[in-house]
Write a structure and sequence with these properties.
heterodimer, A: 238 residues, alpha+beta, Serine Threonine Protein Phosphatase 5, Tetratricopeptide repeat, 2 domains, 4-stranded antiparallel beta sheet, 8 strands, 45% helix, globular, B: 662 residues, mainly beta, Porin, Immunoglobulin-like, C8orf32 fold, 3 domains, 14-stranded antiparallel beta barrel, 5-stranded antiparallel beta sheet, 7 helices, 11% helix, rod-shaped
């Protein structure tokens, strides 16, 4: 009886996971041109690919300065995605998330790091000061490779252009953390805000549009564009 | 000797001499007078004849003395005294002596013989001098009582006789002494709601009836039934209503603006009176310690013939079936003093039930100082609000009982009080599961005397048992364990020349620790096929192996001992709880902008906030693969994390949980 339960559980899990990954698993290479490489899972090595290869959800694809590739995503409906030159995209991002899934992901981003203080023992004393914790000076380390950053942002653009707004927004937010300098870019901030809007998270989109207004050096056209989208997200006034 | 009898003509008027209108229960005490419908209220010696079932509410000894000032004049009258005693916790006895419970009527004789001072007035006296009652509490909300009352009617009608040419008065008295019973019930089905049902005036020992010529003065032996209800309108405002089969009823309210002060008002109705709203009353009560002082004023709406002469033909025993509230009664001011004394402890709180909320796991025992391990449901069985406290104790595993915070309970109210426990170190030596006796006691402030106690069974697990919750696994992490400290210091000392400094220092140290154990630790299942057995880090180091949760706890302890924050990645796949798994991520402290110094592939790390609220780079490691070295454990951990969290959205879908280890 117990073994039946385990088998049933495994079947449920398999169906569940299959349903969750159907989009990402269904990505194949339709055509390829120039310098195109792929990285499997968490490895560091880039390898070449060929036409007809089926990509795994944990793969990352990259095109060189003169490379391009056309992917076929088995989404509903099937979508053909062209990666132009100088683009890096995670295959797992070539999929549609529901607004609820996107909302949960964003919520998890916000609550990360907020679980330190246990809620079950409010009276327990907690040390607020830790002596000697940061005695080391900031390291003289190199920042993340900006070339990779450009490729990844180009990948974000590809996601946006192909309607993968949820993963576009999430990836954009991740890149802001890895490449903080890009946070001051109107175009990149706008694409994230627009993705949130098109993913039907109007509140988050409004917050992002409002935040972009505080960027220095915005042109009148940019301000006008922001105002237009803010009004659009807010909806007609009653 | 020649005897001749003169029959005097009676006057057309009768003079009512009302010494006390307390005659004829149930309206004797000023509290009862002011509240009207007293039968469902009660609770002590006061007005116990309104409903003898209220007697078990007494604390121990209870006494009351009552005086009144009738509007007819004549100063204060001593109405009587009552004395009650609780017996064997559930039983109660009471006696009442009421010499002032008397009503006199005089019918003057019109025969006057000039020059002779001979009185031949007819006098009718009603008294109710004694009463005795017994009651028993059948359950916390239900009691029954019975009372016996003596009622007398004395008709004194002196005869004038001529004896040998001399006119003399010859005493001529007729008396009826009878016993009547009152039987009462009192029921409190829920907090603050009380019902009463009292059968009154049930003939018990009827006694000899008055002669026919005086029969008109007999009060009828008429039994009745009265039902009452007592309920709160507001926490400080209570109401009571009662109605009887004789067409009488009353409604009253008691408001306590302060706990020691009560203000009361009531109205009485009688369908045979005109107007039907026969009387109104008001009063106040003041409580201090064992003393209660009550005053009341009763006013009849139709003054009629009250307190003055009435037509002799109007005087009839049947007109005073309820003597205290009859046609002839007069307004009056009453004053009563109640004194409660004795040494018997009155139980104020009773345990209804004790419920434990699971088992005690030694590893998480410290949380029970703040998080309840059970609850006790208590009830205020007293007559006044109390502050209830509960204490919990397990012999040998605790140094003393752990008290909870006080909970205020109103009379009749129930509440759950959480049970907390501060365990001593003995708990950490409990090798395997055992059942212990937990002692629960409840006390009432401010005295703090134990009110009730109960025992419950507590399942205490072995020191290595784990309830399967990743939150609880934190408590197995022991960064301060001497073995852990010694191990990490030794390793770092050996590797000090190869450790990176600055921003990569923590990453470098963690890597060194993991690699130091490569090939030295081995993954083994729990001693039994159970997922709820966890080794403490010193045990894993000593045994050189363990399963995933043992390894995770061990490395979390090692990393924490050198100041590296960690978090458990708890994976419980939907529909497959038996495939649950746990591994570790640790904080490198590195700003994400420098992440490429650790890995070019962003899937190899996680960017999340640390305990300072700053985003940093965290590294997932599959601790079961530590024996293969850090790189392999990192690769596997990163793969799992990316697959579970990013590809399958496990965290958003709540089957992957991150639990930070402080």
């Amino acid at each position: 009886m117990k073994s039946y339960a385990r088998v049933l559980g495994a079947i449920i899990l398999a169906v569940f996971l299959a349903a969750a990954t159907v989009c990402a698993q269904g990505v194949s290479i339709q055509s390829i041109q120039g310098d195109v490489s792929i990285r499997h899972g968490v490895t560091e090595q880039w390898t070449t690919v060929a036409r007809g290869d089926v990509l795994k959800p944990d793969d990352t694809m990259k095109t060189g300065p003169r490379g391009s590739v056309v992917l076929l995503a088995a989404t509903q409906p099937q979508r053909r995605i062209t990666l132009p030159a100088n683009v890096m995209v995670d295959v797992a991002d070539i999929r549609d998330l529901t607004p609820e899934e996107l909302m949960l992901k964003l919520t998890m981003e916000k609550v990360r790091g907020s679980s330190y203080r246990p809620t079950d023992d409010p009276a327990a004393p907690n040390a607020a000061v830790v002596h000697g914790a940061n005695r080391e000076q900031a390291p003289a380390l190199a920042e993340n490779d900006p070339v990779s950053g450009v490729q990844e942002w180009n990948g974000v653009r590809v996601l946006f252009d192909n309607g993968f707004y949820s993963t576009c927004a999430l990836k954009g937010m991740e890149l802001f953390r890895l490449y903080p300098d890009t946070h001051g870019s109107f175009d990149r901030r706008f694409i994230v805000a627009r993705s949130l809007e098109l993913a039907r998270l109007r509140g988050e989109a409004l917050d992002e549009y409002t935040s972009i207004q505080e960027l220095a050096g915005l042109t009148p056209d940019q301000r006008s564009l922001l105002a237009q989208h803010i009004n659009q997200v807010r909806g007609p006034s009653k | 000797m020649h005897h001749a009898v003169l029959t005097p003509c009676r006057a057309a008027l009768a003079l009512g001499m009302v010494c006390s209108l307390a005659y004829g229960q149930p309206l004797y005490s000023p509290r009862g007078l002011a509240l009207g419908a007293y039968a469902p209220v009660g609770g002590d010696i006061r007005e116990f004849l309104a409903n003898p079932a209220s007697l078990p509410g007494m604390r121990d000894w209870d006494a009351e003395i009552v005086t009144s000032l009738p509007r007819t004049g004549g100063g204060f009258v001593f109405d009587g005294v009552a004395l009650g005693k609780r017996l064997l916790d559930r039983h109660a006895l009471a006696l009442q002596y009421s010499p002032g419970a008397e009503m006199d009527f005089v019918l003057p004789s019109v025969v006057k013989i000039r020059g002779l001072d001979i009185a031949a007035d007819r006098k009718i006296t009603y008294t109710e001098p004694f009463a005795v009652a017994y009651a028993v509490s059948l359950s916390p909300g239900f009691s029954a009582g019975i009372a016996g009352r003596v009622r007398t009617a004395l008709v004194s009608d002196p005869q004038l006789q001529i004896v040998d040419t001399t006119i003399v008065t010859v005493p001529n008295e007729a008396r009826r002494t009878s016993w009547f019973l009152d039987v009462g019930l009192r029921w409190r089905p829920v907090s603050d709601l009380e019902f009463s049902l009292v059968g009154r005036g049930i003939p018990f020992i009827p006694g000899t009836h008055l002669p026919d010529e005086s029969g008109i003065y007999e009060r009828p032996d008429q039994a009745s039934v009265e039902a009452g209800l007592h309920f709160p309108v507001l926490p400080s405002l209570h109401m009571a209503v009662a109605a009887g089969t004789l067409g009488t009823g009353a409604a009253g309210a008691e408001w306590r603006p302060y706990p020691a002060l009560a203000l009361r008002a009531s109205a009485y109705v009688d369908k045979d009176q005109s107007p039907s709203l026969m009387a109104v009353a008001g009063g106040a009560g003041w409580s201090v310690g064992p003393l209660d002082l009550d005053i009341s004023f009763l006013h009849f709406t139709n003054q009629g013939n009250r307190g003055r002469s009435i037509a002799a033909s109007d005087l009839s025993g049947s007109a005073i079936s309820t003597v205290g509230l009859n046609t002839f009664a007069a307004d009056r001011l009453s004053c009563g003093l109640r004194f409660s004394f004795g040494n018997v402890h009155e139980q104020m709180i009773r345990i209804v039930e004790v419920a434990m909320q699971g088992e005690v796991y030694p590893a998480t025992s410290q949380t029970f100082a703040y998080r309840p391990l059970g609850k006790v449901r208590v009830r205020n069985v007293g007559s006044s609000p109390v502050e209830a406290k509960a204490a919990f104790f397990i012999d040998r595993l605790m140094d003393g009982p752990t008290e909870s915070a006080a909970t205020v309970l109103r009379p009749g109210e129930e509440a759950d009080i959480p049970l907390l426990a501060v365990f001593n170190d003995n708990l950490r030596h409990v090798a395997s599961v055992s059942v212990r006796e937990g002692n629960v006691t409840v006390s009432a402030a401010p005295l703090g005397e134990e009110e009730d106690r109960s025992q419950t069974r507590v399942v205490v697990r072995g020191r290595n048992d784990w309830d399967g919750d990743a939150e609880s696994l934190r408590y197995f992490v022991r960064p301060g364990d001497p073995d852990v400290l010694r191990t990490t210091r030794d390793i770092l000392l050996q590797k000090r020349d190869s450790l990176a400094a600055g921003g990569l220092e923590l990453f470098s140290k963690a890597k060194a620790l993991f690699n130091a154990f490569a090939g030295k630790l081995v993954y083994v299942n729990d001693p039994k096929l159970s997922a709820d057995y966890v080794q403490y880090p010193d045990e894993t180091l000593r045994l050189r192996g363990g399963d995933c949760d043992d390894m995770t706890v061990c490395f979390a302890s090692l990393l924490a001992s050198i100041g590296i924050a960690t978090a458990f990645v708890d994976v419980v796949p939907p529909g497959a709880p038996h495939d649950a798994h746990i591994y570790l991520i640790f904080d490198t402290g590195l700003d994400p902008r420098f992440a490429s110094n650790i890995a070019q592939n962003s899937k190899r790390y996680v960017v999340r906030k640390n305990h300072e609220g700053r985003e940093s780079v965290w590294i997932p490691v599959e601790t079961t693969l530590t024996m293969k070295g850090f790189e392999e454990a990192w690769r596997a951990g990163a793969n799992e994390y990316y697959d579970d969290v990013e590809v399958h959205l496990g965290m958003a879908r709540r089957w992957v949980k991150l639990v930070d280890v402080e």
